[in-house]
Q: What sequence folds into this?
């Protein structure tokens, strides 16, 4: 799979790096290789299946090639009582967007609130999770996970010094530590349910949570909560899946309790910060209408805000300021293996000098070889 985009914007590239917070977003004027992904999956034996996703992309400034192991895990396939265990490196099952790979996004970029809470590549880390499929008349699954708290993909938690220097939460200094107890890990939970409202309409509801230490001190903690829904209408009389309508929404809130911090190593720059709680929240809502075979049009609205001051002021913090984004989209699926997407973004952001920005992107996606089915 390969995703490439060409774009233009009313703001320069350095401002786009802050507006487009995802590493697989189009983040520059001109051309961007968003991702070239290699997916490997299959049955190991009667007891396990395995999956690995390796993504290649280019740095928007230097055009250097970046390689990342998005996921590599084993998953049980024959446990009794509706149980399933996953172990390895995996995207945390939080909301709809975080565990979804970029090539399966409807829009070309990830929502603003996801970039803020989960970083440029989504929340993921080595760990394990247990899932239980409840014996109910409808689909109902509960998932409980535990993962490492470090790395740039754990941006709301321990992160690491290099990443925190680039994207500090609240512009606070890094004061993280090492894992010394079970409480130093990140714990997550998700409960999702799905119902067939009629033969053409399906509704999926989910609730998610994640808890763990953050990078501002030994007693600092982060809590993230979210709810989401996805409504899909697809009559059985259509051609190649058209017509259809999907409406997807995610709402999230983060409570970031930062420790006090004192550093007098430089007498000319003594840092004395009080403990503080930074609350952030945001949502996105998108609707996509497949109006003719191969064609779809959509619209996404997003907003993100918060309370508790960043150092230097929240209005000057590109990762916590008030943000509004409106994104119309036109999609042309040429076949099952290729599609073109034309997307416009209108951004209103407090940290921008002119406050407003308009960007236009044309994206091409091609898929070659076998690929596992995407989850609903």
A:
């Amino acid at each position: 799979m390969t995703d490439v985009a060409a774009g233009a914007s009313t703001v320069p590239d350095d401002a786009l790096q802050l507006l487009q917070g995802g590493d697989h977003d189009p983040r520059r004027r001109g051309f961007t290789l968003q991702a070239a992904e290699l997916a490997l999956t299959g049955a190991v034996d009667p007891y396990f299946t395995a999956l690995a996703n390796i993504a290649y992309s280019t740095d928007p400034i230097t055009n250097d090639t970046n390689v990342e192991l998005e996921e590599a895990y084993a998953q049980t396939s024959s446990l009794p009582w509706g149980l399933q265990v996953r172990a390895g490196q995996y995207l945390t099952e939080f909301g709809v967007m975080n565990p979804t790979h970029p090539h399966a996004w409807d829009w070309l970029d990830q929502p603003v609130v996801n970039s803020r809470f989960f970083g440029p590549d989504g929340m993921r880390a080595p760990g394990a999770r247990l899932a239980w499929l409840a014996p109910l008349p409808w689909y109902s699954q509960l998932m409980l996970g535990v993962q490492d708290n470090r790395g740039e993909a754990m941006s709301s938690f321990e992160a690491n010094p290099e990443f925190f220097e680039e994207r500090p939460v609240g512009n606070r200094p890094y004061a993280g530590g090492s894992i010394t107890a079970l409480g130093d890990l990140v714990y997550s939970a998700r409960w999702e349910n799905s119902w067939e409202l009629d033969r053409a309409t399906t509704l999926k509801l989910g609730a998610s949570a994640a808890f763990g230490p953050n990078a501002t001190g030994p007693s600092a903690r982060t809590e993230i909560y979210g709810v989401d829904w996805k409504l899909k209408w697809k009559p059985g009389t259509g051609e190649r899946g058209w017509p259809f309508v999907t409406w997807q929404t995610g709402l999230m809130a983060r409570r970031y309790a930062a420790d006090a911090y004192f550093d007098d190593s430089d007498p000319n720059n003594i840092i004395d910060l009080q403990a503080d709680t930074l609350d952030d929240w945001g949502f996105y809502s998108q609707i996509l209408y497949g109006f003719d075979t191969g064609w779809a049009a959509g619209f996404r609205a997003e907003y993100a805000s918060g309370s508790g001051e960043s150092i230097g002021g929240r209005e000057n913090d590109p990762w916590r300021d008030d943000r509004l984004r409106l994104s119309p989209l036109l999609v042309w699926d040429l076949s099952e293996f290729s599609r073109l997407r034309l997307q416009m973004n209108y951004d209103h952001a407090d940290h921008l000098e002119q406050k407003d920005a308009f960007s236009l992107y044309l994206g091409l996606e091609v898929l070659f070889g076998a690929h596992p089915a995407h989850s609903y």
Notes: The radius of gyration is 21 Å. The first helix runs from residue 13 to 19.
